[in-house]
Design brief:
244 residues; alpha/beta; six-stranded parallel β-sheet; binds 3-methylbut-3-enyl trihydrogen diphosphate; binds magnesium ion
Length: 244
Amino acid sequence: MERKSILLRISTIAMNVPETVAIIMDGNGRWAKAKGLPRTAGHKKGADQIRTIALEANRLHVKKLILYAFSTENWKRPEDEISYLCKLPGIFFSKFINELMEKNIRVTFAGELERFPKETQKVIRKAVDQTKKNTGLELCIAINYGARREIVLGIKKYACEVLNKERENDLSEEEFSSYLFIPENVDLLIRTSGEERISNFLLWQIAYAELIFTSVAWPDFDEEQFALCIKEYDQRDRRFGGLK
Ligand code: IPE
Ligand code: IPE
Ligand code: MG
């Protein structure tokens, strides 16, 4: 590693590190296209970057890292691309599960797994189960996830409980969060590859998140890029509507 990047990584130690980081891992297809490769090659390299960034987030003591891996809108893609994306969790976990265990990383997921092939569901549930006692970083994979769907499901669940008289008809913002796949507030949201939109990710949880849009494609987003984002976050003045 170059001296500059070593210094950058070391300097993050004294920083105000966000507790919850969410990343829209975008640009796999364009990265591959620029290299004359099929889109799937971008997804493959992208999956390796999940390992890199999870290890770095764990090292920096981020509590929860939420990665957008497949949106409810991604079903619109060609069948062969979807079928490759369904195989990726299997490839990823067979390569990295031991390392995730060694580093004490806990895997969770957000979204509706049921629409995926049985085998895909099985490998994801197995990784969740295998790592459930780990106490380091929570690595949450958002898969078949859509924020609007998440909110609608939360409202339905709440309404059912009220109708069944399991709870009172009153609801605070904090209580509502507990009806979602992801109850935490996001501190930092990063989107790679130049697009500056949210694409139906974590609409409720990013109410006061710091946003960083970088032009770097996800397959090129490494520890150094991540450290730069943490540094940028550290320099932001978060006022939450108040004064300082
Ligand atoms: C992100 O990369 C991965 C998924 C959405 C599954 P893309 O596949 O969206 O790559 P681009 O945006 O077409 O370059
Ligand atoms: C968002 O990226 C979804 C994921 C990264 C999984 P997309 O590439 O699907 O989003 P759009 O189409 O550019 O909004
Ligand atoms: Mg994209």
